[in-house]
TrEMBL record, chain A:
Lineage of the species this protein comes from: Eukaryota, Metazoa, Chordata, Craniata, Vertebrata
Keyword NADP in annotation: no
Keywords of this entry: DNA replication
Protein species of origin: Cepphus grylle (Black guillemot)
Annotated TM spans: none
Family: Belongs to the DCC1 family.
Record InterPro entries: Dcc1
Gene Ontology cellular component annotations, sorted alphabetically: chromatin; chromosome, centromeric region; Ctf18 RFC-like complex
GO biological processes: DNA replication; maintenance of mitotic sister chromatid cohesion
Protein name: Sister chromatid cohesion protein DCC1
From TrEMBL, chain B:
Pfam families: Ctf8 (PF09696)
Name assigned to this protein: CTF8 protein
Main subcellular location of this protein, as a coarse class: nucleus
GO MF annotations, alphabetized: DNA binding
Domain of life: Eukaryota
Family according to the record: Belongs to the CTF8 family.
């Protein structure tokens, strides 16, 4: 249709009994643009920080395979996506000015012809969520690195992943993925991210701890150079350096030499895993004796080093201990609690915390999770938690 | 493809649009559909209150600064690779930081008032 004229606008005002003196001089004559009904546009509601990301020219990515719930990722955060319906109609209008803008612009046009670009009664809503990283470990465990002597690596396998591969398969932001790779001690071998097969990892660690022992080095001052010299004939140099980085903190002294301060807790924990994986459960006191004898000279093996790795059964006579790794448990909240309650009916907060700590979102606490997914009761004067529903 | 890229040109390439929120549905008055048809006249009072005249109705609203802005996403044409390459699926064409919310019930405009004889 033809564009409205000032005379037509004024006539409408008169019919509506509105006094032009009480109105700003500029009027927007709204009409529907040629593509308004096409549905090409949709609205995405932005959580704090995302607007700035877009204004800086950074992209966002929606990730998810057909069987996964889609997530949206910025460079460092992950969000669940949901369609929010409104009972109202939302029209999006380019070039529509606010009263402030009209007042600020002295030369504002009398009639502004604005076209509605599109309309919708829903929009994408975002909610910050934990990145879905369990799949990352699962992918890398398809083909753990067993060392250069392994015949496996010489055959062509397709279970190897580059950073790009992981970005397209994991529902998490790039920063969250790279951070997790560091946490699980993954390393890049020939361009592919790999985790070490546990036995190979222990073999490497053993080389290092034996060398520390034979050289009588302080555990907080292990020299990289000497390790590479002494062990370089046994294992690839990259692997020696990798195991030192995984189990120690790297630092450089005033002379520019590279040293490692070894993580006592992490080493003791790994040795415990090596011992515990050989049977379903162990007599606790026997295990503690063998464990202390197995750790390097100068290190103290303590049960609190095993949080999220092993569980002590104080109700059995004699007391026992068994392997229970938090990373083997389900990722979803309800599934995790179901799994834990099927392993043990009643848990103290101290025992269950290492197995639910990773479920806590930005602002959530373990206490809040327990309130939501468990029921508490008193047992022998101690507060215990059990399932809210019967476990089949 | 398990990943959809939402590409932004950055502040220089992003327009600022406004959202108008109305009760009810948008229904074309003519059978020819919406494209090109008039919606109404949008005025502001001197105090900055938006007034929308749609057909025989007056709607009074308010200007709301959105706590959570919206991005307007435009889907790339299926057949055409965008300037960013074949993996771009959506482009952010505009940001919306302001909305005009019309929640009041429309007041009908009475055009024919019989004159008293």
């Amino acid at each position: 249709g033809a564009m409205r004229s000032r005379a037509e606008v004024d006539a409408t005002l008169q019919t509506a009994k509105l006094n032009p003196v009480e109105l700003l001089p500029a009027v927007h004559c709204l009409s529907f643009g040629p593509q308004a009904g096409a549905g090409d546009c949709c609205l995405l509601q932005l959580e704090p920080g995302l607007c700035a990301e877009l204004e800086a020219g950074r992209s966002l990515v929606i990730r998810g395979e057909k069987d996964e719930q889609a997530v949206l990722c910025s460079k460092d955060k992950t969000y669940d996506m949901k369609i929010a319906d409104t009972s109202n109609m939302l029209l999006f209008i380019p070039g529509c000015k606010t009263p402030e803008e009209l007042n600020a612009d002295q030369a504002s046009c009398d009639i502004i012809h604005s076209q509605v670009a599109g309309f919708s009664n829903n929009y994408w809503e975002l909610r910050r969520c934990r990145p879905k990283l369990k799949k990352l470990r699962k992918l890398l465990m398809e083909d753990p690195y067993e060392g250069p002597d392994s015949r496996k690596d010489q055959t062509l396998t397709f279970s190897k992943y580059t950073t790009e591969d992981l970005l397209s398969l994991i529902q998490a932001s790039e920063e969250e993925i790279l951070h997790q790779l560091q946490i699980i001690d993954a390393c890049k071998i020939e361009g592919y991210w790999r985790v070490l097969e546990f036995d190979y990892e222990m073999k490497l660690l053993n080389h290092v701890t034996q060398l520390i022992d034979s050289e009588s080095w302080s555990l907080s001052k292990v020299p990289l150079r000497t390790c590479l010299e002494e062990l370089g004939s046994l294992e690839p140099r990259e692997m020696i350096e990798h195991i030192l980085l995984s189990y120690g903190r790297k630092y450089i002294d005033d002379a520019g030499e590279v040293y490692f301060e070894m993580h006592e807790d992490k080493i003791c924990r790994a040795i415990a895993q090596m011992l515990l994986q050989n049977a379903v459960k162990f007599n606790l006191s026997e295990f503690q004796e063998v464990w202390q004898q197995s750790v390097p000279e100068g290190m103290t093996a303590r049960l609190d080093q095993l949080k999220g790795l092993a569980l002590v059964d104080k109700t059995s006579r004699p007391e026992t201990i068994f392997l229970l790794k938090v990373e083997d448990l389900p990722e979803g909240n309800q599934e995790r609690f179901n799994s834990l309650f099927s392993i043990r009916e009643k848990w103290t907060e101290v025992d269950i915390t290492p197995y639910i700590q990773d479920l806590c979102a930005e602002t959530q606490t373990v206490g809040a999770l327990l309130t939501k997914y468990a029921r508490s009761s008193m047992q022998n004067g101690v507060k215990v938690y059990n399932s809210r529903r019967p476990i089949s | 493809e398990a990943a959809f890229l939402i590409r932004s040109e950055g502040a220089g390439g992003l327009a600022q649009w406004v959202l108008v929120e109305l009760q009810g549905e948008v229904v074309p008055r003519q059978s020819g559909g919406l494209a090109g048809s008039l919606l109404g006249d949008l005025h502001y009072t001197c105090e900055g209150v938006p007034v929308l005249i749609v057909g025989h109705h007056i709607l009074y609203g308010k200007v709301v600064q959105l706590e959570k802005p919206f991005a307007v996403l435009v889907k790339q044409g299926a057949g055409e690779p965008g300037p960013a390459g074949p993996h771009t699926h959506y482009t952010v064409t505009a940001l919306i930081k302001t909305k005009l919310l019309f929640k009041t019930r429309p007041k009908p405009i009475i055009t024919n008032v019989p004159k008293k004889v």
